[in-house]
Records
---
Amino acid sequence: MFVDSDTVNEFRSEDGAIHVIERRCKLDIDAPRLLKKIAGVDYVYFIQKNSLNSRERTLHIEAHNETFSSRVVIREHCCYSVHPENEDWTCFEQSASLDIKSFFGFESTVEKIAMKQYTSNIKKGKEIIEYYLRQLEEEGITFVPRWTPPAVAPSSETSSSCKKQAAALALAVPDPALREGLGSEPLSNPGGAPEPAVGTPDDKLDADYIKRYLGDLTPLQESCLIRLRQWLQETHKGKIPKDEHILRFLRARDFNIDKARETMCQSLTWRKQHQVDYILDTWNPPQVLQDYYAGGWHHHDKDGRPLYVLRLGQMDTKGLVRALGEEALLRYVLSINEEGLRRCEENTKVFGRPISSWTCLVDLEGLNMRHLWRPGVKALLRIIEVVEANYPETLGRLLILRAPRVFPVLWTLVSPFIDDNTRRKFLIYAGNDYQGPGGLLDYIDREIIPDFLSGECMCEVPEGGLVPKSLYRTAEELENEDLKLWTETIYQSASVFKGAPHEILIQIVDASSVITWDFDVCKGDIVFNIYHSKRSPQPPKKDSLGAHSITSPGGNNVQLIDRVWQLGRDYSMVESPLICKEGESVQGSHVTRWPGFYILQWKFHSMPACAATSLPRVDDVLASLQVSSHKCKVMYYTEVIGSEDFRGSMTSLESSHSGFSQLSAATTSSSQSHSSSMISR
């Protein structure tokens, strides 16, 4: 607890921009009386130095203990600065250290007291800043003007005002533990010249933009959005999803940045692997789906959300699975979700407020035991799993109507796979309960209630019905079709193990050809190398590690460089090794100088600067192949083109569509190609 302080030193620059004040602070520590008696003190003294730089808009607070400095060393540093992307935000950084050398045998007790006091004081921060803000308001100070260089002959009134406010700020909080009270006034600009209100997605942190496109966010939530977006910009350059999409993942993880970042990276990799961004433009649903899938978009609800109607009770799920297979159904559901994202953007523009989710109306009339057919339920669970992982917070409300007696059985099967936040959005009505109070009219306007629910609006959703058995296909045909659907991708997956790199061979006939690559590090850290050899390696040893799958795309592992080969004699390195961290997206190119064989290698990275000549093979590390911590995953695409056709960047290649076109507002080009490889992250 702060008791008193004396000013030791004070400095103020001639222009008033810099004010440094050093104090000796007297504190009363909430410690046991016995400990104070043994130590022989009632109070402890700290030296605190406050440095306010109004020109750069920063405040540094440094403190260290004077009492018992030979036995205990306490240092603390706090820094307030202006947020780089929003001048009305204050950034706060803090570091502190405690080194207890000796304290009369009470070292452990002192450490516990220090941590307790430290935690307690941090919690006081909000109360303190509110106290001083109220005090300033009572004095008639509603803002602190931004510092400007003094005129040649400044008025006495202005000079007095600046000095008074600077002194008030410097004296407001004598103890570094009370630093929160200085958080806003010297740094923010609530009363200065107004910033231009652009109100467009280009001005990401503009208040009008946030209100118009993102909705109400607390300062902490806005900060989480900025931090996650900055991380994506550093690791996924040119492929940044829109803020609305980033927010969905943050909301789904209660704004836990680490969890949101992990799930989002997995989703972005999944989208790229299966080219989900292009599904609306490149995939046409089979006629069977168009005729017998009883679902479709139907206007919007009272909140402006797009409304999707699904007549599940009228749909022959068994017939659809037998005729199309699980993967085709899944792809169709993905196309529905992609269309939902597009409609949300449209409705945001139409209604002038952020709309990031849609409402789903499910009519269960006709649901029976046929719908509980095991393969059909399995397909439904897999669809739920994929949608939950990649389209979080897109379901605003789910209205389940005319639930029959068999519904609890289906609900018991599927509910464990549905996120708790999503489950809270479900409204279930049995029989005709949806027509009464709290029913459908609370959420949907009367004029757009579908005709099959006794409404007046004609609904163009297909009526479903039984799929003719003549359209059924054999299990072998469905398996081949499923494989074809989800291997239609230009990207390949590979697993990289400790001691077992993944390598691919590229033969170059004409010198000055250009090798281009685009890869994502899905798991672990890797080292990327490029080698050249005049002779071809032996046929590769290949260890297939998994099959293609939409939920968990597998990969393979191939080694080409023979263990008897020596670096510098049998092959040479043509690019410096590049260390790539988990989550990074890397694009680059290499202009070849000689014909021959080029080997692109992704190698496990755990220790800095591994010897390039050390290339252990799978035979040496069979045991380590089962260790998940020694496993990395990459997803890559390579292409060789003539130098005359190379236009300078990966994004210029028509066959290399690696941007998230539907999720990103704009895609930027990677680094320009020179005579040697340029890596763009």
Note: The two ends are 50 Å apart (CA to CA).
---
Amino acid sequence: MDANGEGRGPGEDLDVVDHGDGDASHANLRGDMNDFQEIDLLGQSRKLVLAVREMGAGVEEIDLEMGPGEDDPNFGPGNSEGNEPQGLLELTPKQQPRKKKKVVKKWRDEWAETYKWAYVAVHENTPRIFCSICKEYGRKHRRNPYGNEGSRNMQMSALEEHNNSLLHKEALRLQMASKDKGLGLIDRPLYIKVCYQSASHEQPSFNTKPPMFLYSYRLSRKAAAALCLCGKVVRRLHRSQIALPQSGPKALERKNQYFGLNDKTLMSKSAESILEAVIKRDPHEGEFIQAVSEVVHSLEAVLSKNPQFVHVLERLLEPERVIMFRVPWVDDKGEMHVNRGFRVQFNQALGPYKGGLRFHPGVNLSVMKFLGLEQTLKNGVTSLNLGGAMGGSDFEPKGKSDNEMMRFCQSFMEELYRHIGPNQDTPCGDIGVGTREIGYLFGQYRRLTSQYESLLTCKSPPWGGSQLRPEATGYGLVYFAKEVLADLDKDLKGLRCVVSGSGKVAMYALEKLIAFGAIPVSISDSRGCIIDEDGFDFAKLSHLRDIKNHRKSLREYTKTHSRAKYIDDGKPWGVKCDMAFPCASQNELNHSDAMALVNAGCKIVVEGANMPCTTDALEVFRKSKIVYAPGKAANAGGVVISGLEMVQHSGRIQWSADEIDSKLQEVMKEIYLKCKKAANEFGIGLGSPESLVHGANIAAFLRVARAMLEQGCV
């Protein structure tokens, strides 16, 4: 029984001695050995250590290391104690005799090497934790990672134990619980019980004061077995009870020191529970969880002041409708193929669904849901009465003939037309879907419905499209950047800018940057990047467009401009610059790229793509005080012109390019002011590097949430 009268189960008794300064310097764990067998990875004689090293407020590195074993003569009880890192809590279970096993030395070394925490790499657009030996993630082992030594039974037993070990069972959960794994420290909440204790006793004793719960975080039993707080390792621990100062001026400081948290990273119970529910419901949708995590973090202040919005946010994060269908088509050789089509109709509170269609091999449900959420908030931050949606297919348009594209688009529309309409859902173009594809899609829709409606936007101007629609996102991106610079008393003229991507957004952003006197020095595609230290001008930009229109490699540019250099599989983020415009795709800019930007002197990052920066990259920008403009605000120019296209089509009119450009500048300035105002209302000043991120999320959410409240629980 503890001081509060609570009983501890087997394996849950932790005794702590405090030497007066509040640090727990020694601990022993007493319990039933049966409880430890479920997490003992190498048998009862080996010890598992999870060391968590802190850098700032978050977890920066996680290592799994092997302790001494009975079959290694280099380690003994004395050596183990002397070699233990300072500050570790040593918890040793009761020793029981076991049968001696013959183990090949190299096999043992490789086994131990396995448990030095693996590396993180991106696989199919998703961060995964890979084993450093078998080069596979999770439980996907296709070969024996331990060589050919030992008997077949030994090899198979080792492989089975490895697959079922704590390393792989906890890998994806730890990925979400570590900032370096993509989602932030507190994405998987845990309960930590904090008790008072007396420092006057040689043996630990709990006083009569009831236990104090600093935070209400849940901790799974297996994860608790290797929890480490403030550099103090807790081995095989089922309930963490760490003594902290009861009161005093340093109590709060010590509390944050132990938990590796600060007030900005702590989430309210409501926000925490919402995020946990999303992760539990869709644990494998990495892109969607990443987008939700950013939004929920931004809305903590809103939810604390307006509790009525908690349930609204829960409804908002679940799409209203998800449509998946097969898309059969025939290529020019007469061979049949099947792809998967999607349309995620996310939220219709503000108006008809509005969002792009993306044809790309990386399309999946997670990507569609994240883009649908982003589109909902993007439309919300504008003044347009449009809901949010996203669709597309895992079809690869590169290398396809016009006839193949037509057959695929017609097959795609044969199912999609049932779910769209001018007052229901109005798709537009995105990656892989340009004017040609929109034409094929609209033609099939018109044939199936016998209706010529204001449905698909991004059409050609001669038959219902708007002027400047292809240029809108790139132009609007630069207009937004101008507003950011104006508040900093700066101007685009003479600033060196790095741009990624070579699609419509990147190309038209380059054009507008050149027009304003900036010096763009880079452009990239999936195969590499071009760096031109002299900067691009209109003549060079024309050459780049010609290269892309003929589907040639960017390397062709260096044949005409010898001072430029082409980098195979390279990124432009290490080039000296003042501003960065990531315009390629989601999660293209990671932690190392962000560090390269900081070292290159970058001061402002403006997103041209949707969520192009990973969580790790955003953390680098925050710590480095880099001003960061999110895509849901900065690249909203495209949807603005789509809305204007719908207005023109309904009135059977067409505005001039100058009129459209003037309206676009006004709307982008209005969006910037909305973000700035929302951030200020909730105590986030412009001096904060995250002010525009939080402001965009808050302004968009409040507009959508109020509409949802007034329309009832639907």
Note: The first strand starts at residue 13 and ends at 18.
---
Amino acid sequence: MVPHPKDDEYLNAAIPKRIKMFESIQAEQKTQRLSLSPDPIKVTLPDGTVKDAAKWQTTPFDVAKEISKNLANNALIARVNGVLWDMARPLEQDCELRIYKFEDDEGRDTFWHSSAHILGQSLEMGYGCMLCIGPCTTRGEGFYYDGFYGDLGLNDDHCKQIEAGALKAAGEKQPFERIEVTRDQALEMFSDNEFKVEIINDLPADKTITVYRCGPLVDLCRGPHIPNTSFVKAIACLKASSAYWRGNKARAILQRVYGISYPDQKSLKEYLLKLEEAKKYDHRILKVKQERFFRHESSPGSRFFLPHVARVYNKLMDFIRSQYRVRGYEEVISPNVFNMDLWVQSGHAANYKENMFILEIEKQEFGLKPMNCPGPCLVFKHRARGALSGLTRVRRFRQDDAHIFCRESQIKDEVREALKFIDYVYEIFGFTYDLKLSTRPENSLGETATWEKAESALKEALDEFGKPWQLNEGDGAFYGPKIDINVSDSLSRKFQCATLQLDFQLPNFFKLEYLAEDEAKIERPVVMIHRAILGSVERMFAILLMHYMGKWPFWLSPCQAIVCPVSKKSQAYAEKVKDEIYSKGFHVDADLTDRKIGKKVREAQLAQYNYILVVGEQEAETGQVSVRIRDKADLTTMSIEGLLERFSEDAKISFETFVKFPLKLP
């Protein structure tokens, strides 16, 4: 146990007051609910089954019990008419009901959000800290809780003690209970915590404020949560680090504690093993081992790509560019700087101006582009567009994005083809992925009928695509529904790279038009499709580096071969071999240092060269090379001609065949 100060005065003042207020408000709300008429309502399940229920009495848990005991025992959260809902919260009207378990994204995210409260309970009771925020992580792997500890700094030595407190809370089967409070009640309840007070004061005036309790922890939270803490059978504290309140380095310094949890010990052990494996192949570690890139204070937030990374970068560009050509895309290049009037017209200024680089040129404001979208709109608009092909595809390469302008009737076909494109590329990389259709959010723009037609087209495209997909209700962009694609690498870590987003607004903002098929009528595109596959190429490089664990496939490898002379006597021949391989377009290096051959081979293995070519006096006399293939100990003697044929076959198998895509062009 690591000795540490504990603010008992804060705990003795805050905890009993919050619990007393919570219980008082909870009792009032229960009494009020019991006075309401339990009118009959209908509950519709995903398969169309309709269940009878009682308003203000029947809960999702009651419905789950009626379906099966197994579902009731494993149900974590429900969705009622599109809104996530506690399993113990009574239903209020006729509704559509979905129930989620840990295997579902909604269930897993809720599980980890609730685990953050269990972690928060351990931190608050063990350290007397002021809790700030405790969400599940954006990567969808675990959770964290930020807290203010005064001068105390947490580190990994505190983790076991924090874990013990969390496991104690989980073992007590504490129910997660929910109440709604007024703003004044919330401010009184959390008056001892300046961070919670700030959050409350920043909430919109019409926002429903909810508070949850599990055991001694009473926390401001929108919820929902799992039924009780006993669902968490395994929990681990991963690390502790510093953070700034609301990400502002001028504000208070907080301590952030990360955790992970599962419904069983086996899953936790598997995750921790995977985490240790992942650490070995973190791109920040591999880049040091393999000298890939670096950063410099002269350009914060940027990376300098060294020659080996530049090779991968260019090969990715060659690959994706070849696919664009086969699939009928045309490349355009738009400026990096636009007058701010354009960003106002596109709507980007309203959302991003404070984070844009603004320049003043001849007393006018210009901005570096935060997104590519307006440029393609100007390209589309600069001349009359006919309806023979029905679309125009444009892209800007580094972000690997495309903008497809199409009519309402073409949405399904264009999205389906884009999904095939994404599937094709990710299969080559060895990624698995999942698909989610995100539908109309509360702050959406445009007509409901347009949204419904677009969402229907996306559903049809996904169904025709033939892979499983999930509905992510209410999480679309304000300008249109979207398909989110999350890839999983070789260690099952999830990343979002590809995206398909429908945009109803930009074509209207720019008044884009095209000639109807009879060329006598001018019409407007209904939608612009934003489409990315690689996403940020820099980020894709990092993901691929970790995915391949530094062992690049030959076609993409920056280290395809290295020639290692046994001694100075064979150096001239080594350089000749290198030059001949290089002249055929392959990436080849030569180790001409005075190190012993064993050391050269070992260094080449650590750098993950696909082929290590050892040459001595005998090889020089016969015009051959001794070939060691990565991860294989055996040496094979080959002629230079035979080696080059081998290289060509490797490149053909892993790249050229991918390019040959049978697609009927318009």
Note: The chain has four domains: 8-13+106-275, 36-101, 282-334+372-384+400-549, 554-657.
---
Amino acid sequence: MVATEQPLRQSFPEKSSVVDVQGNTVETLKVEKSSAVESPLSSGNGSHNPEAFRQALNKVLYGRSFYIPSFKIHDGVSGLFDYGPPGFNVKSNILKLWREHFVREEKMLEIECTCVTPEVVLKASGHVDKFTDVMVKDVTTGSYYRADHLLKDYCNEKLEKDVTISAEKAAELKDLLVVLENLSIEDLGKKIKEYGITAPDTKNPLSDPYPFNLMFKTSIGPSGQHTGYMRPETAQGIFCNFNELYRYNGKKLPFAAVQVGQAFRNEISPRQGPLRVREFTLAEIEHFVHPENKSHPKFSRVAQLEFLMFPREEQVSGQSAKKLCLGEAVAKGTVNNETLGYFIGRVYLFLTRLGIDKDRLRFRQHLANEMAHYAVDCWDAEIETSYGWIECVGIADRAAYDLRAHSEKSGVALVAEEKYAQPKEVEKLVITPVTKELGPAFKGNQKNVAEALEAMNEEEAVKMKATLEYKGELEFYVCTLEKNVTIKKNMVSISKEKKKVYQGSFTPSVIEPSFGIGRIVYCLCEHCFSTRPSKAGDEQLNVFRFPPLAAPYMCMVFPLVKKKNQQFEEATKVISEELTSCRIDHKIDIKVSIGKRYVKSDELGVPFAITVDSETSVTIRERDSKEQVRVSLKEAASVLTSMAEEKMTWQDVWASFPHHSSHSCAAAADE
């Protein structure tokens, strides 16, 4: 079933009330990585001002310490942010759900690798040579900018704001945006000069573009002889540990390994606040599978899901994303295989359970010019925000590229084994290190040399055999020793034999879902942020409508203050201890009036508040409806626990306990 994507977002009328958004509708043409024009963030009743919305949101995010600019007292550095207590708690809850949803459900193997990575590893992966952005410099001030960002901003601004632009020129700029990522350095420079693009801050001339490697370089050890980098992703550690993980898993395929940790990218000119930073948290899954069998036993569980998908055909033809059935997309080949489709479905379920608006979540397929040459198929989970569509999760079928690249560079075979149903007769190249000759020659390094010899491909082995027959010896590089050694004719036997084989080896393919956790945190904040009028109707009050599983605290505890500052200390202590024993995150607040405490709690996004106004019973207030029920002191913690574990909903609680009027609580407060 196909339904057209709704371009007018239903949740923004309430969000837009944060600011004065009365006036003419903002006509925004958003051109992304294709010629498709996306609709603006708006509602059917009025316009939405993304910048003003962001200002209102950021006032809360920074004012309530969700985010803190790093090293603020020293003026900080752009692209670095700290999480304050509520922001950290939201992020921790997202990772907790991520582990439950993926690691526990799929029996994945979680590991932790170092952030400092030797150069040889990232040379093998291609990062040393290719992990670059193209930048230009303000020739007067020395400020740096990403060349493609300047060109993209110029095109978008002309398309959005220049009412005199001709149809021919508009088509040219749209076509340019489609191929922007494929432009060479020379072509970028030509376009910047052709359009007269200058430094955005000063309008000064710009230098010619040149490449800049995004990795943070360092030296390992005091001598400085060993170059290293802060890892730009977590995946390489998993690939390098494949053999150990494969053995640990009982040499069974498929299996998945995961890693959660910090990654580092030295962005040229970070912008978009917490969305583009220089240090961030990645959660990456590497699912290893036989390259000729990418079916998935649990695909039927997600096959019926329908959500917004944006295949490349729709992008290049100027259409919008549409609701598609995942099972049909796989059956038709739009999504390459079941395993890739399974993870797309699981990512959709994860993000929507977190609280991401399903109508502002789409899965966009990479265009042909975006995909690496070795990739089979790639999709990005993109979330619509006030900045536009933001990539938060990449789900890619990377084929066998990564394991082969590391195997070739290291000389260590990274392969899995398979048993044949019927034996096969093959002509096989047999490389046999002669251990009795290697031992005396290489002593403790014998194993390294033997493994390097066995890891040779057929072409290398044939050349070695010919050279040894002619010269009797040769120099052979052993990558694990990082040096050449002398191999003599009597140290290795190389021959071709016909033999029956009952099993073989192959290099597994990998399906990789990669999650930018920081981006998900920010997008969730945007999707959950709203306002509502105060009781007097004279101001708008901020509310984060986080689901309980993502909220910074499950509940607040508000002891009611009576005359002479007497508080319900014993009852509050009992409630707090029971909540703690049930692992319910909570916070006690005794300052200001009860009404103001509710306002503060709502602004933090805390879903429930317990008001202690008796030694025997309490009220529980729900944030979104502002409804209250009265429960006994002994029941309060178990009720919150049931909701935290999703065994009960607020509707269940509302139906099970006496309702409580907020007026009686407010009247008794702060006498």
Note: The two ends are 61 Å apart (CA to CA).
